[in-house]
Fold this protein.
Amino acid sequence: MRVAIVGATGAVGHELLRVLESSTLKFDELQLYASPRSAGVKLPFSGQELTVRATPEDAIDADLILASAGGSISKALAPAWVAGGAVVIDNSSAFRYEPDVPLVVPEVNGEAALRHKGIIANPNCTTAVAVVAVAPLHREFGVRRMIVSTYQATSGAGQKGIEELLDQTRVVLSGGEAGAEVFAHPIPFNVIPHIDAFQENGYTKEEMKVVWETRKILGDDSLKISCTAVRIPTLRTHSEAITLELERPATPEEARELLRRAAGVEVRDDPGAKLYPMPLTASGKYDVEVGRIRSSLVFEGGLDLFVAGDQLLKGAALNAVQIAEYLQAQGALKGRVAG
């Protein structure tokens, strides 16, 4: 089986290479593609160096394509990749809201991937982190309302976001005044309640992605969801404070026990020992940390919780590879079946 990464030199592309090295996905050839300016760059993989090629404007001779080159590239080229016989797992927002394109988090709705017509969408990183924690609670207790406040790392804006935080922090620490190009305002020692474009309803597109995508992944359009998305001056891992109103009351103890058994979750919840989810501890982890689980003071029988998940992994590269592993395990990819 032949696998290709499109967008191999980006932040998610680098993570895809790292995740594939330890993945159970079986393949015989790995091809790397990026923009023409990156053609010829060599990237390490499993003890060898692979040469990056310029992304062609037609079909790619591969069985599986992991795309992370942006929505415009995917929108323009993914149909040609599918026509050439590839299954495309796309990290951009290009196809997430198409009714016939599955939007998949394997721990939550892996079976949806089997209904693809050539393209499978990876959710927004913020959504992916949230639904891993919320889905088990929704299945057991039923979620009526979900209020989310996010604390999103600069790497959510790509490598340029990371560089702006580091560079402008140095400016401030040297006595200068920080500037802003990637973000709407200077990011050092600041928080910015503005991610993506504002919509007519006053919410940003990033906030609405959490609404639209959570409903689609959980298969429940009746869910009432509100989100406030905030950029914070950290390098990696998104955190989220989540309040849930439930159909059936749940105690914190019941929620903890349920989440301890849930795939993709690490319960980190012992305030007395100062143990709770943080970007510092969740960065680099495959599982989403969940903690600060307590009874809601607003919704009787509801819950408040805090989650932290590496958005470059579970929010992007890891989730894409897990989808591919699921497909192969189900015999739905060309090549040998995992195991």
